[in-house]
Design goal:
The chain is mostly helical. The chain is built from 3 helices and no strands. The longest helix is centred in the middle third of the chain and has 18 residues. The radius of gyration is 20 Å and the shape is elongated. The relative contact order is 0.06.
């Protein structure tokens, strides 16, 4: 395991002092900020995901 940086240690300490609700609010805020900056991948609708998985399964079955 790598040594934790000073920033990592301070983040851990700060999170330990926070209540669960405060940590949840911080997480929600971070996700919203990431969405604004376009850092999150586009969400994939269920039908597309199922088609992609089915294609992958068919491809693997055809190889055997």
């Amino acid at each position: 395991m790598r040594n934790l940086s000073l920033v990592d240690l301070e983040t851990i300490k700060r999170n330990l002092r926070s209540t669960p609700n405060e940590r949840l609010e911080a997480l929600i805020s971070a996700v919203r900020e990431a969405e604004k900056l376009g850092l999150l991948p586009e969400s994939e609708d269920r039908k597309k995901k199922e088609e992609r998985i089915n294609c992958s399964i068919r491809k693997r079955l055809s190889k055997s």
